[in-house]
Amino acid sequence: MGSKELQLSLAAGACVADLRALLLHQFPGLGPLNARVRVSVNHELAEGDARLAEGDEVALLPPVAGGAGACTISGSRLDVGAVVTRVTGPGAGGVVTFIGTVRDHARGRSIHHLEYEAYPEMAEREMQRIADEAAARFPGARVAMAHRTGQLAIGEIAVVVAAAAPHRAEAFSACRFAIDTLKERVPIWKKEIASDGAYWVDDHA
Prior knowledge:
CATH architecture of the largest domain: Alpha-Beta Complex
Mean pLDDT: 90
Structural class: alpha+beta
Low-confidence stretches: 64-68
CATH class of the largest domain: Alpha Beta
Order of helices and strands: HHEEEEHEEEHEEEHEE
């Protein structure tokens, strides 16, 4: 669109869908991305029927690609080194990583591949809350996490958690807390495609 910010005028009673239509008219290049762009109004996600008022701040949120914040969801292969870099620094005497990969057997079945789905905006927000909780629980700890979505082959990395702290004990504890809590709270869903069919998994494996 060629600009970081725009000032726009809409008719009284206009909604988010009206704004989208106006933007598509003024910026046709937005078309291919329109269905994948989310909209927030005053920092809250908004659907098409949400009404707009004078002075509202509306943001267009591009598709989540991962890699920008400390905790990310990505449809691309995860870079372990990039996740570690998010937490390292001069005060980090210990850095611990957990790497979760796709295994070829589960629950007595032979696994062909996995498929992960997520609610990306909420998942990243919840992952960041967990990282903040780890920092509060374990002195000096910093935590970063990245999780894959889409189809993953056997051996591919599904999740990376990195924790750094001045001392190794806190780094180990923060890493363990982060991955265990992620499995319990973050809206990410796993489907196993196995030798006897495909099914969603309701566990913390």
